[in-house]
Design goal:
By secondary structure, this protein is mainly α. It has 2 domains: 3-179, no CATH class; 181-231, no CATH class. The chain is built from 12 helices and no strands. The chain has helices at 3-34, 39-48, 52-64, 68-78, 82-93, 99-104, 108-114, 125-153, 164-179, 184-200, 206-219, 224-230. Helix 1 runs parallel beside helix 8 and helix 5 packs across helix 12 (224-230). It is globular.
Length: 231
């Protein structure tokens, strides 16, 4: 399959993500502008950090003048879920030509598309995954810049806009549940989170839940269903 054909298929796969990322990116850009940071900050954060939920949290950190240690610990907490993303992608990305960028660009939504291991017949898997990841990255950066520009000329109420990331997580979870036969990772996440919520309370459950999920999925890595999806 020609590179242009692969690019077209990757673009079409990214369109549903575009619909969410542009809107959510606009929300982030507006929040950042409302906090006093201009379009340059929106562009740089979305290009170099590229972590939707953490960027939303980062607006508050910037506004409050949080210390570097606080920012680092918060980042680890918010993005700890990526620890168990990597478990099912280790074999797939081990010899990938574009591995550094593929790892960097493995967001929740990109993972939900690539986690089943399927690529268009005849397409170069590495190129397809690179282009899909890059298109999704582009949509997020574009939305952030648009939001910052809109926020500079149109007054917006930002109340409740931070819930948009939660809504996207729920949509991604639902889509993955409906399109995959193996629900072990999803059930592991739900049950582990519920147990840790009961055990540690709503203020302290996140890190224990991520650690428990990572531990369980690591132990289940050789389960036939997990190995089949990782192949």
């Amino acid at each position: 399959m020609s590179p242009s054909r692969t690019a077209r298929l990757a673009f079409l796969q990214s369109v549903p993500v575009m619909a969410g990322y542009v809107v959510l990116g606009i929300g982030f850009g507006i929040l950042l502008r409302d906090a006093g940071y201009g379009v340059g900050w929106a562009f740089a954060m979305s290009l170099l950090i590229y972590a939707g939920s953490m960027q939303y949290v980062g607006v508050g950190l910037l506004s409050s003048g949080a210390s570097l240690l606080t920012a680092a610990l918060t980042t680890v907490t918010v993005n700890a879920r990526h620890l168990f993303y990597s478990i099912s992608m280790i074999e797939r990305y081990r010899s990938a030509r574009f591995k550094p960028y593929l790892i960097f660009a493995l967001t929740d939504e990109t993972y939900s598309i690539l986690s089943d291991g399927k690529t268009p017949e005849g397409a170069d898997p590495d190129l397809y995954r690179l282009l899909l990841s890059a298109f999704n990255h582009l949509w997020w950066v574009s939305g952030s810049v648009i939001g910052s520009l809109l926020g500079s000329v149109i007054p917006f109420s930002t109340r409740g806009i931070e819930f948009s990331m939660t809504a996207l997580f729920l949509a991604s979870f639902t889509e993955q549940w409906l399109t995959t036969q193996n629900h072990i990772p999803a059930l592991t996440g739900l049950l582990s989170t519920f147990v840790c919520l009961l055990a540690f309370g709503p203020e302290r459950f996140l890190i224990p839940a991520m650690l428990l999920i990572t531990l369980v999925l690591t132990l289940l890595r050789r389960h036939p269903a997990i190995r089949k999806e990782a192949a």
